[in-house]
Amino acid sequence: YLKLYNLENQNCELIYGHGEIVLSLDAHCPATAITDSSACSLFASGSKDNTARVWLVDWAAADPARRVVCVAEAVGHTEAVGAVRLARKPGCNFMITGSQDRTVKLWDLSGVPKTSAAARQLAAPIRLSARYTFKAHDKDINSLAIAPNDQVFATGSQDKTAKLWSVAEGKLLGTFQGHRRGVWSVTFSPVDQVLATTSGDKTIKLWSLSDFSCLKTLEDHTSSVLSASFVTAGMQLVSVGGDGLVKLWTIKNEECVLTLDKHEDKIWSLAVADDGAQLATGGADSSIVFWKDTTEENIEKLHREQADELLKEQALSNYLQAK
């Protein structure tokens, strides 16, 4: 099952549907979904039961049992679905899945209900059809990422490579080669033509999408780097790894500027809020940790302390002059 958490009170709802362990998640949440009572969100899940499912979340539903509805099911992979991604643009008309069977499938979501009223009319989840299927790698596919413009997507595999593909045709555009171990995650920069990959070789690599060359290699983790995400308008990168650490990198000078230690085991998953102010990490220690960016608060505190120090120095100076 899955869990849907309320971040204000930490309450959660159990969501049943898959027959085996859930390995991957992705969400498509419109900016108005929380404030607009008529807006809904979609999220997708991939499982060891060889299927992927698409769920609709009605945030305005009074009955928690009716808040989440499975609206579609993708059946066709012959092994576990370890990676799933929804289209990034509004409308969310397709989903891409990657599997341990080494294939990639693109599923048409144009007929999937996007409103709670349409979802309630379903007698059963829609059986999705794959627009195309192809063998993408020589070993398990660990991760997928779709570019912000929905034109291309990337895959990362245990075969030590990442690859770039055309969304429209599933055509191979290029291969990123250089890691010495399997690639655990791939992610696109929100502002540049750059792809970031993380690997079991303890490194993060940044690649050019134009010529597929390696631009930078970031090294500081002491174990496999399992996930990464761009923050601060693409100027920084957050990574998590098998060493249980969260690291913040400044890309320009390839420097690790902050290391956070809260988990007691491998950190397998990382999610960053759209504004970059919060992030969540999930680990093999069975815990989910929420992190908040306190940079502005720390700067304000420093300014207050400096102003207070100036007042004290001025007062001391006045007392000395008055003897």
UniProtKB/TrEMBL annotation:
Superkingdom of source: Eukaryota
Name of the molecule in the record: U3 small nucleolar RNA-associated protein
Species: Spiromyces aspiralis
Gene: utp13_4
